[in-house]
Amino acid sequence: MVLRAITSDSPGTGVRAEMAANDLLLVTEDAVVVRTDAATANDAAISALEGGNMLDIRGGVASGGTGILLGNSQSDDWDYSVKLGANAFVNSFWGSGIRASAINVHIVNAGAIQGHDGIELNGISSSDVYRSRVVNSG
After folding, report:
1. What is the 8-class DSSP label of residue 135?
2. Is 111 helix (H, G, I), strand (E, B) or coil?
3. What distance in Å separates the CA atoms of residue 85 and residue 78, rounded to the nearest whole number?
4. Residue (of 33, 31, 35) closest to 63 by Cα position
5. What one-character-per-residue DSSP string does 32-101 give?
6. Can you give the pLDDT at residue 103?
7. Cα 4 to Cα 137: distance, rounded to the nearest angstrom
8. What b/e string do you get for 35-55 counting C-beta neighbours within 10 Å, with b at 16 or more?
9. How high is the mean pLDDT in each 10-residue block of the chain (138 residues)?
10. What letters, b where the CB count within 10 A reaches 16 and e where it falls short, cover 86-111?
11. Rounded-to-integer distance, Cα 53 and Cα 11, Å
12. What pLDDT was estimated at residue 78?
């Protein structure tokens, strides 16, 4: 488990923050994470594909593709938590602001999430234990 803090702007090509299993990510209020080369809706600025991740977004995330990508297996990836502060934003121009192909995803939004699909939840589970949820006050 690693805590990564992005405290200043991070524009550039490719995934700007790639998270391993159980990693934590903080994007501070003064930081904007931007993927500048997104060619498809799947090209994410922040990618967390292994599960058990917590993201605390207080600044901004933007991509032509997907802003934040959580998981890549609808039934095998789980346990993601995303919190957006009141001044936070996640923007996508032709993908999803947040795309989750996973189960047990919890998103608490006090900011703004925008995109072709603001939030895309694609988890599949036959159990009530692994329900995803979105709490929105932004």
Report:
1. E
2. coil
3. 23
4. 35
5. EEEES---STT-EEEEE-SS-EEEEESSEEEESSEEEEE-S-TTT-EEEEEEE-TT-EEEESSSEEEEE-
6. 78
7. 26
8. beebeebebbbbbbbebbbbb
9. 95 96 96 93 91 96 95 71 97 92 89 92 67 82
10. eebbbbbeebbbbbbbbbbbbbbbeb
11. 22
12. 66
In this prediction the pTM is: 0.92
* Phi, psi for residue 130 in degrees, rounded to 5: -105, 35
CA distances from residue 47 to 72, 86, 138 in whole angstroms, order as listed = 10, 22, 23
| Residue 119: strand, helix, or coil | strand
Question: How confident is the model at residue 13, as a pLDDT?
Answer: 96
Stretch (H or E) spanning 4: strand 3-6
Residue with tokens 């997907």: 66
Give the pLDDT score at 130: 63
Token pair, residue 101, equals 């192909």
pLDDT at 76: 61
What is the structure's pLDDT at 8? 97
Per-residue model confidence (pLDDT) at position 61? 98
